[in-house]
Task: structure prediction
Amino acid sequence: MPNLSNQLELNRCPHCNVDRPNLPLAWHTQTDSHSGGSTRFWRVYKCTSCGGLVTAAAIQNVGPVTEYYPSGMVIDGSIPGAAGEYLKQAINTLHAPAGSVMLSASSVDAMLKEKGYTNGSLYSRVNKAVEDHLITSEMARWAHDIRLDANDQRHADQQATLPTEADAKKCVDFAIALGEFLFVLPARVERGLAAAEGT
Result:
C-alpha cells in the first residue's frame, strides 16, 4: 500500500482505470472514535484525468494507507482464461471507451464459448443460452445491446456514435455480472458444499 502523502500513488485510478494516475491531495482531516481512540488520518485525492475522488486513510499521519475508497474492480479468479483476461483489459481501458466495449464483448463471447456455445454468431449463441436456461431473457437483452455496440465499433459503422465512458462502464458491468452468474457463484457453491461435507 502507498503512504498517505500529498500524492496518492496507485497503479490505476479506481474510477477511470487510467494507468499511473495523477492523484494530488484535495482535502484532509483526522477522526477519532466516540471515546477518543481509533485515530485515523484521512485524505481525499482528485484524479486529474477523470475528476473522480479517492479517499484514503492511515493510522499515522503520512503513514502507510490502511484503506482507500473506492477500491476499484477486481476480477475473480473463477472467471476462466481468455474471458477473465478480456474482462481485465476491458476494465483497464475504461478511459478508452471504444476499445473497452469491444473487450467486454470479447469477454462475454469467451464466457459463452467456455460453456460450450461455440456455433454461430454471438447473437445466436446468446439466444441458445436463453433457450437452454443458462441465462435469463433479461440478461440476453442486455447482452444484445453490448454485442451491437461492439459490432458498431469493429465494423466502423458510420451511422454509429462513439461510445462514452458511461457506455463502456455499462458493458463492463454486464460482463462482470455474467461472469459472476456463470462462474463465480457456482465456484462458491462448490466450495461451500465441499466445506460442509468436510465437517
Notes: The mean pLDDT is 89. The first strand starts at residue 25 and ends at 31. DSSP finds five helices and four strands in the chain.
